[in-house]
Amino acid sequence: xxxxxxxxxxxxxxxxxxxxxxxxxxxxxxxxxxxxxxxxxxxxxxxxxxxxxxxxxxxxxxxxxxxxxxxxxxxxxxxxxxxxxxxxxxxxxxxxxxxxxxxxxxxxxxxxxxxxxxxxxxxxxxxxxxxxxxxxxxxxxxxxxxxxxxxxxxxxxxxxxxxxxxxxxxxxxxxxxxxxxxxxxxxxxxxxxxxxxxxxxxxxxxxxxxxxxxxxxxxxxxxxxxxxxxxxxxxxxxxxxxxxxxx
Amino acid sequence: xxxxxxxxxxxxxxxxxxxxxxxxxxxxxxxxxxxxxxxxxxxxxxxxxxxxxxxxxxxxxxxxxxxxxxxxxxxxxxxxxxxxxxxxxxxxxxxxxxxxxxxxxxxxxxxxxxxxxxxxxxxxxxxxxxxxxxxxxxxxxxxxxxxxxxxxxxxxxxxxxxxxxxxxxxxxxxxxxxxxx
Amino acid sequence: xxxxxxxxxxxxxxxxxxxxxxxxxxxxxxxxxxxxxxxxxxxxxxxxxxxxxxxxxxxxxxxxxxxxxxxxxxxxxxxxxxxxxxxxxxxxxxxxxxxxxxxxxxxxxxxxxxxxxxxxxxxxxxxxxxxxxxxxxxxxxxxxxxxxxxxxxxxxxxxxxxxxxxxxxxxxxxxxxxxxx
Lengths: 247, 181, 181
Description:
The complex is a heterotrimer, with 1 copy of chain A and 2 copies of chain B.
Chain A: E1 8-9, H1 16-26, H2 36-49, E2 50-51, H3 55-76, H4 94-120, H5 143-160, H6 162-189, E3 193-194, H7 195-199, H8 204-219, E4 223-226, E5 235-238
Parallel strand pairs in A: 1-2
Antiparallel strand pairs in A: 3-5, 4-5
Chain B: H1 2-21, H2 28-35, H3 39-55, E1 60-65, E2 68-73, H4 78-83, H5 95-107, H6 112-119, H7 124-132, E3 136-141, E4 149-153, H8 155-160, H9 177-180
Antiparallel strand pairs in B: 1-2, 3-4
């Protein structure tokens, strides 16, 4: 049967309880006297018309559907012989009503919280990095520990990943090339060169390689590097500029 | 007598300096420890600062958030401050995440299953999001089968929502009951 | 007359609020633009704020630094503030987060996939944590399939680890390198 139904997206509802509230509000039903047969029918109709996009959420909707059908059956069946433990006249719908009311409370609270956050957001605290006397957020680690951890990562990584060793060869090449270019620049104009000049046009991959190479050259005291400010270009000089480059 | 006044003045200045410099709310204990003043003195300095800020038509105010004290700009100047490049920090949470957060806030400590039964939908995804955002955290395990994780809200939750304490949560909406319906 | 005084009071409060909350030093022009006040009014508000801070034994002071005005806590309280910094521990970074941070620090710019290949474990969670802590940031995209995000360390990383620059990172232990390899 092909039917032209409005295509409803399931995610429009956070869950089955929200869908039930939608139906209750739409049909102006009394929450304390829900016509179970009616609401079950409406609910099932919605489910059929909905687009099922996320299977997890669909499961929650289907679970509710089975609970509604069970409830409907209980309402239809003749009242069971009175259970001694059960109070006379207990409404089988009570649990559903409680859940619906609980859910509505949750929704109200969510709205109130959102409102609260919005009110608070016009209070600006200080922008923290500013000022000489500002407290620095301390970190339970220092740079030496970082190096130590990185060393561990490397020793762990090298034997298992073939491309790491390939990368190291490339770094060696990069280092030599950087040094040659720096050397040439120094001989020509007796000045250092900026990192971007030395690398020249290159892919991002090559930039990474060159930067690592630079760090390594600095560590080995082959070059000196200066950077006026973070993120500005790095000026590089031969480490022993007066005596020329040892490499 | 004048010594006492001077001491009070100094305490106030010290508290103001600490509050100004700290990147997060400070507790009485924090300030007492750092300054070497007794907590009672820090407390009275806080009170007179708060009064002064209110009385003197100042640009800043003192608030109790996240179980600590913090200075904020007065809300009536927020437009100017936004003009200068600050942005309002409203926690960008989906409706589902907000719902889950309010369930945890009001019912904590609470398990995932309990959250889901209240909301009627799976909530593992939103619980993970909220944990990653630092708004909720694990607060132990429930003593039942499977020892499920119990979730609680964090200090950051209080700070981001401008709440001093959990008692500052907006009141629960009242169930009107069948009579009034 | 009283109107004028009130206006002056309001201007002072506005200037204080802006200075307090702005992320960087503010110029007269900045404050005039943001508040809609004439520069002359901002200027006289600044002057009376400065006097007030000096006279009233406050915890903060106003200084003209570089090309702008900025609030600072008074230097005589800096010991207390350092003390506070020592006491208030931001939740320590997990071992996994530190490991990820060191990989980013030494190999930046680096993609998530590259971090994961080096560490041998999934690292999206720790990368998120580090971003939220302001220790790493996106530094462009890699020119490969999918144009993945490249991560770099931030200025804050340098500040928090007491590094002047990336070159100040300690040398790696026993990294064989091409020459010695």
